[in-house]
Amino acid sequence: MGCTGCTTCGTGTPNGCKSNGGCATGGCNRLNTYDWLSSMDVVDTDPFDIVEVSFKNGAHKGFYRNQDHTRSITGDDVVVETGTGLDVGRITLSGELVRLQMKKKKTSEKDVLHKIIRKANERDLERLAEARSLEMTTMVRARAIARNLKLDMKIGDVEYQGDKRKATFYYTADGRVDFRELIRHYAKEFRVKIEMRQIGARQESARIGGLGSCGRELCCSTWLTDFKSVTTAAARYQNLAINQSKLSGMCGRLKCCLNYELDTYLDALQQFPKNADKLQTEAGTAILVKTDIFKGLMYYAYQKDSGRGKLYTLEASRVKDIKAMNRKGEKPADLVSLQVIFEADSEEEVDMGFEDVTGVIELPEEKRSKKRRKNKKKPGNRGKGGNSTSRGSNNSQAQNKSSQDKGSNSSGKKGDDKGSQDNKKGDGKSRSRNRRRKGGRGRGNNNNNGKKGDGDKS
């Protein structure tokens, strides 16, 4: 991935590898090339005036004619002419290597029309940095406009030209999209010339970049340019489980690396017999469980064990012999005598300078304090028992409250009734009660008690 295209730095100089602008692994630029001829003191007898120029850290490249008055070499930032204005890029290849690159990409010299105008100055680089700073905000706004128009498309990347007169919008869509109305909105919003370019899911991941499941940068964003079709048959030939999540890459398609070793597997599979899923023996029918392609081994198990019994390892040549016997109507006794027996390595043990004490020294057992486990009620009983106890406590509390309320009400009523009786009758019963409350004094104090009771009542 390009350093200026990610968030690791803001100056274009990598912070991690400390090589100040270039890596031997090709991690500082997308689809980068190494011009090894330019670093050698070799005079080119047949100079080639076409150079390769890279734009936006290798996002796309083009071939331009290098005029003599520019005096630009590999690694220089140059200003080139395009059909819609000027752009700023960097020369990545020059000389005879460009001729080989053009042959690889099937480009003829007659197709190269644009030229390099001059080397880029500080003002050109400042305008280029301003254009790069506008790309993120433009992409966010462009996605919002496309969503408002309810278009089934996704804006993947935006690239401004060096003079900020043109913006290229890269988008992905499942089908054909009518974006005529969208271009009008973009031209009104951004006030630049708009170019819409449809790309695939793999090209989108190549432009964005990222890390694969292997831990390395994506192949499509570093060196892979031609995308070949990948099918699930490639995974089956390599005995890989058909797991969509593991076989898919960052783009959502099958990984391109499934084709890298496919030819090697196909060559190794030619040594194996065909239609060898079942072998007939006198002990029963053996079925194929798995194969080791590079070791040339096939693993069988008897059908009566449903493939879960003992596995018998056979070489591919032995399996061919058994298949030939089955065609003649003959059957071997069993697979025990035919299986491959792996002998243990009889190499002398290397003295590592220490002794293996496994099984010699026994450590004492740890004495662990036994913790009392609290009897936790089951969640099913919690709902029942807990509810019943809570209900019982609530009922008892309610009963106590009601009894207290009744007692207070009854005492209040009795007091009122007795007071009314004392006020009406004024007999000796109320006086005796007052006497008992005050300590149970003698009978001789009845008059005094009655007066005090009358005073209290008043």
TrEMBL record:
It holds the Pfam family PSP1. Residues 369-381, 431-441 have a biased composition (Basic residues). Residues 387-402 have a biased composition (Low complexity). Residues 114-199 form the PSP1 C-terminal domain. Residues 365-458 are annotated as: Disordered. GO terms for cellular component: cytoplasm. Transmembrane segments: none annotated. Residues 413-430 have a biased composition (Basic and acidic residues). PANTHER family: PROTEIN PSP1 (PTHR43830:SF3). This is PSP1 C-terminal domain-containing protein. It comes from Phaeodactylibacter xiamenensis.
